[in-house]
Amino acid sequence: MKQYIVKTLLAGAAVLALAACDDNSWNEDYLDGFTTPDNTDVQTVEYTLTADDYKSIATNATNKALAGEELASALAAVQSRQQFSEAISPEAYLPAFLSSTSFPYFALSNGSAVKVTYNIATAEPEELAKMNAATGYTLSEDNYKTIYGSDDNYAMALSPSNGLNNVPAILKAEFPDAEQGDYVVVNYNWSLTDPVFGTVVPDEPTPGFEMTSALDGIDTGDVITVRGYVTGLCARGYIVTDKSGSILNYIPSGFDPTAYPIGSQIEVTAPVSSYNKGWQLDGANIQSETVTPADEAYTFPAPTVLDGAALDQVITRTDNELAMYVQYTGTVAVNGNNINIKVDGAETAQGSAYFALDAIKAELTDGAQVTVRGYVIAIAGTRYVNTVVNEVVAGAASAPRHVAAVASEGRTALYYFNGSNWSQPNNATALSAAQCMEIAGYSTLTAAQADANLPIFLKVNFPYATEGTQRYVVYDEYKTGYVARQYVYDGAEWAQNNNTETATLQFVRNNGEWKADPSVVIVLPSGRNQELSTLYFQACTDWVYENIDVPLGSTSITSGFGYVTTYGNNEYYAGTSAYQGNVDLRADKAAAQYPDGYAGMSDAEIQALMKKRFETEVMPGALAKIHPDAAPMEGVQVTYTITFGTYDGANATETIRYEVTAPGTFTFLDCTWNNQ
Fold first, then answer.
1. Could you tell me which of 652, 650, 648 has the C-alpha nearest to residue 672?
2. 619 — phi, psi (to 5°)?
3. Cα dihedral 499/504/508/509 (nearest 10)
4. 537 CB-contact burial (10 Å; exposed 0-12 / middle 13-18 / buried 19+)
5. Bridge pairing between strands 422-423 and 384-394
6. Highest-pLDDT range among 145-154, 247-256, 300-309, 588-597
7. What is the pLDDT of residue 627?
8. Is 272 exposed, middle or buried, given 0-12, 13-18 or 19+ CB atoms closer than 10 A?
């Protein structure tokens, strides 16, 4: 079974305009009685793979066995990327799918053919391939110590004075065996303000700023104005401290901790509320608020140290209390979003980091022995001591340290190694977990979420891009790891350059098995206005004009000089006629059109020469023009079989075959007119 072309034009084939002819011309001897062969017993199906089909191909048991462990990941990528690749070819991995019940036409009988349209990966840029192999790295506490140059005075975040310019040296130390072209995705914390270590609040308050004592005797519903300092931060608000104590201003959504640096002077007016035995300000209903960054750092008082027994005592409170600055030591237990600290000696109570910022979370790893300092603000579930954590100390605390609890956010950057130094490429963006959260509501993206949202992200973040601008985006893909994509701006929208081509390949079912066979059968009906015949025979006429008549001196396809007639739609080098849709083998007509070409030859000799030219020159030339992508396939004889009409005073139907021996190259095999 071959691919049948009966009544549809081939996409992309160019046909020169035909010259007009009247019914009194020589062309009136057309083949009215010609009919195409009956091919109704052949079932040929055209099918385009769907997303579900790529999944079926990737999970097919036969294909998994074929791929083995070596190509298992490449086969899995067929599903996620919805495309074949050099390693996982359609020739090898489509037959099992076509034979499975996942294929709607799996029951087709032997002799049937299906033309499958699919996606296949093209060679991706080396730069993109390297990015897709990038290693992920998160700056550690030791890295931050190195950056700040101290084991005591440092912050778990980069800042304007201790920023990204320090990262290349860190990467050089962490990746001593890096090779040119390597990429690393670096995750880090960033603070908009520099931490200040070891300073104290001045004896004289800032002129015009006087702390209140507004927290004495508060009650639910009171609207109070608190003037003091920001002394603690979490993802749900800030601690404000005045002369009378400390309280959490609870802000349920939209809170930006970077706007409230520790030590800032603040004046806030809001209602009083309570939650889980702790006083709060109702941050959802703030009446007024003024924040002024402090010129001097805030110095915390000595914390109240809670051992296990003291922690158990805290959870027995029965009334609402103000926030209390404390310190306790224990073992971190992480359970999903819950971060607890188990303190030795506590029978019931556990510490609990309340909506900790990313910089704090990074230090509270499961199983770590830590000392935390911060504000106890509530009791959750009768046992958890909710604490707005300001500082985390590895192990048990000794002398007070000045690790700054700066407001920070998690960020991500991509770095490239040029063989000697690390730097950030200027044509790539690496998305942080926070950016992924903003984009899709999760810290990672699925491929579908990336498809839908990354073009929008680029349009928002690069509003001045010019047409043709290319940019790479690296993100953490759900259950996959870091993935890089290349996008191109067309002047209006960003679109992914996924290095994918759409291709079509024919499969033939024989002896119960499907096998790739791109062979083609073409039926060219005789007669006027036969669209497919006009296409092929005009290509033949064009070939004769360009390759035979022009070298003879012809300057126009309608000049009548040479083998092509003045109509420009038929020729007598091989006899092809786009007007009649056949091959005209009349020797007298050929000799009359170009006498010099046939001088001294008999009719039989002229006809034999025209047939030879058709077989080996003219039709191969037309096929190369119409089917430039035809190519041989290993293990398969790729053939083009063409049925066409002839006229030599009588109508006849012939069939000629060619083998594709090289890309766009058609080698003559046989023709039925030689069997007569």
1. 652
2. -65, -40
3. 70
4. buried
5. unpaired
6. 588-597
7. 94
8. buried
Tokens of 195: 């931490």
Q: Report the alpha-carbon distance of residue 381 to residue 376 in Å, rounded.
A: 15
Nearest residue to 219 via CA among 282, 302, 295, 154: 282
Structure tokens at 99: 């034979």
Tell me the pLDDT of the chain averaged across its residues: 87
Choose among 364, 278, 389, 373: nearest CA to 326: 373
- List, in sequence order, the alpha helices (H) in 284-331: 308-314
Residue 41 in contact with residue 108, Cβ under 8 Å? Answer: no
8 A C-beta contact, residue 568 and residue 27: no
Phi/psi of residue 622, each to 5°? -65, -40
Contact assessment for residue 156 and residue 393, using Cβ atoms and an 8 Å cutoff: no
Q: For the chain, how far is it from start to end, CA to CA, in angstroms? A: 26
The topology (CATH level 3) of 223-394 is: OB fold (Dihydrolipoamide Acetyltransferase, E2P) (2.40.50)
Q: Quote the radius of gyration of the chain (alpha carbons, Å).
A: 40
> For the segment 14-64, what is each residue's pLDDT rounded down to a tens digit?
332 222 333 323 333 333 333 333 333 347 889 999 999 999 999 999 999
- Give 522's DSSP letter: E
Return the H-helix or E-strand segment holding 528: none
pLDDT tens-digit readout, 296-317: 567 788 888 999 999 999 999 9
| 560 has pLDDT over 50 | yes
d(CA 30, CA 42): 29
Q: What whole-number distance in Å separates Cα of residue 646 and Cα of residue 666?
A: 21
CATH 2.40.50 occupies which residues in the chain?
Answer: 223-394
Measured CA to CA in angstroms, residue 455 lies from 35, 80, 124, 127, 130 at distances of 54, 19, 20, 20, 22
Alpha helix stretches (DSSP H) within 441-530: 447-461
What DSSP string describes 579-637?
A: TTTEEE--HHHHHHH-HHHHTT--HHHHHHHHHHHIIIIIHHHHHHHH-TT---BTTB-
Q: By the 8 A CB rule, do 266 and 292 touch?
A: yes
Rounded CA-CA distance 199/402 in Å is 10
What does the DSSP 8-state code read for residue 558?
T
Structure tokens at 406: 């700066």
